[in-house]
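Quick note —
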Amino acid sequence: MRIWVIFIVGGLITFSLRASFIVLGDRFRLPESIQRSLVYVAPAAFAAIAIPAAMGDDGFGSLAPPTPEVLAAVIAGAVIYFSRNMIAGLIVGMGSLWILQAFGL
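Predicted structure written out below.
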């Protein structure tokens, strides 16, 4: 029973924090320094997802020969850099990973 209380309270806290940005978003304005730093959220999220996957299970990636994960991360990074579109980078990166794995590279 205690674990359910923890789950419910944690869910309510998470929900209320996320909902507060929607409900109170028009009433409060974030400081300019925070708004400027939000530009870096998408690249940081991409790095947090792509780098551990590309480095392998032991945390030490091998670049010779490049693994499909490393190649897909490079392709996705290039798409994000040139298009400035995070969604396109994720779609192209996952697609290229699946294609590279299908061909056994």
